[in-house]
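Please decode residue identities from the backbone states below.
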């Protein structure tokens, strides 16, 4: 299998110096495609984009950050760039790993023919483990990463399917929040409690001369159906299909899904047969789930089929099937910041714009007297975090190399004036270039100016009420970049998170 590595959030990759980009059939296949387009074109039975629902969001049609790799301009350009996407893809014998910008350093000379990016020698001095991506997955999704090997040099196909198993508890729990899926099943009865059409043929055969019984049939909702049978077979087969490192048993031992597993087993015990798995898989493959209310079950069905049918889905058996798991780095970072900050902040799900629960806010209200109040508001905005008391707003930016620009500052100032606060924050991951100690975070303070520069006006600091300055703080969370073990990385991240929380509450200290 041809392995290729690229790093997300990178600009100006030199094609001349990295000819394998142009030679890689997989990279050329996905060149310029956004997550939504990639999902539409290759989102077959074994291709997943997280968060679920993100790939179909209309907002992503114009979001360049959700592109895996692309030319910045004309296709004749020799420079490539990557977006916020991280993850793993396999296709037709090729394998692609998209790392975070914080890959730990090992001996680059042993792997220089694999890595395509050489503009960060201090950080990408080879391929150690991508501790930062693993840490985000563990904090945001609660994955048992101790059960798998996600090191850079591990087999990509193995990593993809092990990650799918790790995601099974999340998919199952989200689906089961709406209860076991039920469908209407035809049942035959032979009693006097008639609640359906009389079955004349059965009545003649079975009940001639009897007055105490009537043969009839009814359609009743039942959780014992092909969808739940597929989930049941997946539950029973995971320990056998994925015994490495105790992965299967470890995943099923997740406390979040023990109740869900018991519910699935109760629902399917009457008809479950371990030898019927081929029939159940084929039925579900021919009948993809489309119920709008139970949309989570569509993702669960797809995941179960991929877990059970691992061998035939792999590229060696299906040359035209793309398989893999991709994560939107901006979403992972935003959800991670939400975990770190805790419940004192209100956090709209703004990476799922237009979906239920996304928490969009309106900026302006039209003041026509006859205007319908429900249609009078205009200018959708999606703040990342707002304190419950409205004292300040906070924006999480997954920007490492390009930095926070003028449009970003306009965005947070809009949020500040909309929510009536004079204090705003940016939180972003910081790659330490040696200027800070590992236990230090970066804090930069900005004050809003007033007046017209270069005219007769005096450029001064702007006040909301002439007593309080309008201030924007930019906080860079220091990401450990030394070659260390994962426990050491996690411990240092925990310390830096504590310091970041203190900076938010008391930036002047």
């Amino acid at each position: 299998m041809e392995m290729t590595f690229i790093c997300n959030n990178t600009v100006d990759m030199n094609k001349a110096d990295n000819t394998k980009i142009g030679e890689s059939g997989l990279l050329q296949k996905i060149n310029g495609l956004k997550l939504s387009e990639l999902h539409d074109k290759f989102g077959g039975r074994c291709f997943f984009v997280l968060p679920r629902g993100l790939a179909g969001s209309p907002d992503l049609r114009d979001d360049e950050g959700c592109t895996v790799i692309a030319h910045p301009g004309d296709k004749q350009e020799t420079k490539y760039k990557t977006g916020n996407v991280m993850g793993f893809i396999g296709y037709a014998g090729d394998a692609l790993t998209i790392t975070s910008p914080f890959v730990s350093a090992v001996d680059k000379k042993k792997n220089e023919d694999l890595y395509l990016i050489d503009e960060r020698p201090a950080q990408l001095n080879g391929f150690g483990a991508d501790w930062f991506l693993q840490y985000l997955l563990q904090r945001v999704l609660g994955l048992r990463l101790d059960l798998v090997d996600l090191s850079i040099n591990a087999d990509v196909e193995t990593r993809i399917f092990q990650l799918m198993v790790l995601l099974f508890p999340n998919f199952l729990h989200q689906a089961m929040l709406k209860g076991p899926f039920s469908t209407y099943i035809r049942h035959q009865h032979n009693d006097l409690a008639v609640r359906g059409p009389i079955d004349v043929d059965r009545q003649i055969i079975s009940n001639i001369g009897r007055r105490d019984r009537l043969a009839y049939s009814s359609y009743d909702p039942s959780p014992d159906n092909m969808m739940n049978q597929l989930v049941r077979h997946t539950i029973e087969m995971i320990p056998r299909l994925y015994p490495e490192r105790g992965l299967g048993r470890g995943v099923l031992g997740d406390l979040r899904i023990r109740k869900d597993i018991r519910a699935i087993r109760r629902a399917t015990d009457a008809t479950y047969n371990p030898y019927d798995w081929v029939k159940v898989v084929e039925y579900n493959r021919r009948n993809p789930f489309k119920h709008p209310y139970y949309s989570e079950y569509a993702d669960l069905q797809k995941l179960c089929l991929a877990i059970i049918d691992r061998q035939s889905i792999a590229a060696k058996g299906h040359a035209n099937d793309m398989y893999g798991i991709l994560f939107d780095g901006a979403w992972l970072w935003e959800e991670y910041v939400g975990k770190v900050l805790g419940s004192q902040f209100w956090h709209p799900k703004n990476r799922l714009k237009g979906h239920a629960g996304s928490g969009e806010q309106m900026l302006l209200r039209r003041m026509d007297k006859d205007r319908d109040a429900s249609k009078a508001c205009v200018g959708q905005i999606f703040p990342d975090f707002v304190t419950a008391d409205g004292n300040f707003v906070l924006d999480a930016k997954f920007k490492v190399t390009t930095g926070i620009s003028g449009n970003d500052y306009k965005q947070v100032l809009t949020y500040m004036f909309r929510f009536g606060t004079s204090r705003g924050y940016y939180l972003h991951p910081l790659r330490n270039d040696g200027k800070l100690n590992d236990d230090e975070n970066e804090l930069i303070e900005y004050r809003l100016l007033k007046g017209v520069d270069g005219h007769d006006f005096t450029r001064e600091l702007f006040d909301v009420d002439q007593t309080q300055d309008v201030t924007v703080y930019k906080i860079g969370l220091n990401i450990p970049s030394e070659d260390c073990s994962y426990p050491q990385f996690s411990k240092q991240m925990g310390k830096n998170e504590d310091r970041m929380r203190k900076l938010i509450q008391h930036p002047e200290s």
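Observation: The mean pLDDT is 78.
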